[in-house]
TrEMBL record:
It catalyses: (1S,2R)-1-C-(indol-3-yl)glycerol 3-phosphate + L-serine = D-glyceraldehyde 3-phosphate + L-tryptophan + H2O. Tetramer of two alpha and two beta chains. PROSITE patterns: TRP_SYNTHASE_ALPHA. The keyword Transport does not apply. This is Tryptophan synthase alpha chain. One of its GO terms (molecular function) is tryptophan synthase activity. The alpha subunit is responsible for the aldol cleavage of indoleglycerol phosphate to indole and glyceraldehyde 3-phosphate. It comes from Candidatus Dechloromonas phosphorivorans. The gene is trpA. Pathway: Amino-acid biosynthesis; L-tryptophan biosynthesis; L-tryptophan from chorismate: step 5/5. Belongs to the TrpA family. Its EC number is 4.2.1.20. GO terms for cellular component: cytosol. The active site is at E49 (proton acceptor), D60 (proton acceptor).
Amino acid sequence: MSRIKSAFDRLAAEGRKALIPFITAGDPDAALTVPLMHALVEAGADVIELGVPFSDPMADGPTIQRASERALARGMSLRKVLELVVAFRATNKNTPVVLMGYANPIEAMGLEKFAAAAAQAGVDGVLVVDYPPEEAATFGAAIKAHGMDPIFLLAPTSTAARIEQVAEIASGYVYYVSLAGVTGSGALNVDAVAERLPLIREKTGLPVGVGFGIRDAATAARIARIADAVVVGSRIIEEIEKSTAEAACGKVKALVAEIRRGVDEVKK
């Protein structure tokens, strides 16, 4: 059983919802990434989404774009991201890690080589923003063959046919993008999200995480009432961006712990 499925099974048994924070590997520098990952776990993260920086992150708004630029300027690469996962796994064997990024770095390395290296490093899932499900059968098979979960995005504009395509390939969980836009943009309409989730659940039994636009504990609590997981990214990157390197872990830990409390209000 994968670490991702184990985490969701445990949470379901406890009547709790998952918290999935996102950070960009190498932002603001590689030395801080693993301490930040541990801070996320200490604050209550159930799964960590680790962004692979890319020069043209089309689904990401300005905040995460800047994080990618900072990381790339410091020499971060896909291979170095995997080295960071290895370092994290030296002391944390249980928290699932999902790589989130774009196809170009994977294609440059070679899909099979990447899948083998990611699994060996301790990665649990891979979400590639620009692999459409219609063209992702080979990707999904390679990831699953190495014991990892291929994770896909769904959006407010996703048709029933697209949802079915994702359901056939995906495992671990599916990520519902709450906004028809990039990360960090727009105002989250929780009612609109609630209207869409039943259609997704008709097509797949996988847990559904919701992200984009979640910035505080109150919004996280509202999403946790209707989804299986709450995904938070840009707000955490903002905290890193405005902090000193020395203060970043503490600031991030405090923010994520506050959001964790909001998510756990559902159980109460």
